[in-house]
Amino acid sequence: MIRRRAEQRVLRSLSEAPAVALLGPRQVGKTTLARAIADQVTGSVYLDLEDRDHAARLTEPTLYLERQAERLVILDEIQRMPGLFEVLRGQIDRRRREGRRTHQFLLLGSASQTLLRQSAESLAGRLIYDELPVLDALEAPADRDRLWIRGGFPDPFLAESDEAAARWRLSFIRTYLERDIPQFGVRVPAETLRRFWTMLAHRQGGLLNASRLAASMDVSAPAIKRYVDLLVDLMLVRRLPPFFANVGKRLVKAPKVYIRDSGVLHTLLGLATLDDVLSHPVVGPSWEGFAIENLIAAAPFGTVPWFYRTTAGAEIDLLLQLPDQQLWAIEIKRTTAPRTSRGFELAANDLAAARRFVVYSGAEEFPLSASTTAAPLETAMAELAALSAR
Q1: What pTM value is reported for the model?
Q2: Assigned architecture for domain 144-388
């Protein structure tokens, strides 16, 4: 089993709040992580709300949960029983008033507008949100190209062949479109949403132009924005916002859009092997998106990701605003001979970035200028991860 770095973070959050919501797409490893946590907390109770027998225990949820008062209760696929949020609030508040040790709840769910709205309304001030992304290059360091091509969902990453991994991802996409998304009450034909998802894949890392996408699909611009919102809520797409700063420059204001998992991106484009990807025009944007997801996953909790671009051409692929407000400027290159660009240096100077990297696909760290370092992806990630451990 691959040990997830999020495990210690979730355990720490459980010591600080009565409830933790661990969100992520299906099959990302939430249940495996929750069971690993349960093994460390004596007497933990795990309920999968997609299992009828488990769900039946919550026919009278207040009575059941009161009996588990001193235990960690793990509720998987919490969005299946939205009425539980109000019950959980009552349980937490009652024990707080009585001055007794409060319940601990670990809530697992596929991110959705419904889940976020209900949990925010019922458990405000009682809940810490956390996200479990796909496997990253520090969790699966043995073969970076394999992780890039297959993506970070555990099953395809560990599959016996690229072909088996591709079949898994095809099934994953089909299941989301035909079963999971309709369960959230979204009335969009599966074929329409697949076309849109594929169009985003062809535009990996591009600026979001809702009007142009709407014209291509013969739908309205507001419909395009709803589709993007849905895929962002499900943690399948990243909408990377532009950084706004009073630097006396004309800045690009549209967000950039990425398919978050590189393996899903490749499957949407019909690519299954390293050779397929290397010979396709998406190779650069794919590597950029892969690096962005890995760097964000390694960054300290509370880091805000941006990109920065002026109309004059100064650009930073990924700008990380750390919890202490320090800015890290990162340029991403799929090359073994990285160079720093004038546009990147100008942009980093505009923002007085504290750390400056060109993240590339090689294996050695070395200086490119007095202020900028060329670094392998794992090296930059490790430096970010070290900040989390402080």
Answers
A1: 0.92
A2: Orthogonal Bundle (1.10)
Kindly state the DSSP code that residue 198 receives in the 8-state scheme.
H
Measured from the Cβ of residue 299, the count of other Cβ atoms closer than 10 Å reads 22
The answer on pLDDT for 161 being more than 80 is yes
Q: Which CATH class, in words, describes the domain spanning 6-131?
A: alpha beta
pLDDT, tens digit, 9 for 90 and up, residues 216-235? 999 999 999 999 998 998 89
Q: What is the mean pLDDT of residues 192-215?
A: 95
Cβ within 8 Å of residue 35, ≥6 positions away:
46
Q: What are phi and psi of 229, to 5 degrees?
A: -55, -45
**7/240 Cα distance (integer angstroms):** 26
pLDDT at 248: 58
Pull the structure tokens for residue 108.
């697992």
Q: What is the pLDDT of residue 117?
A: 67
Q: Residue 228 and residue 208: Cα distance in Å, rounded?
A: 9
Query: Which of left, alpha, beta for 52 (phi over 0: left; psi -120 to 50: alpha)?
Result: alpha
User: What residue spans define the domains of the chain?
Assistant: 6-131, 144-388
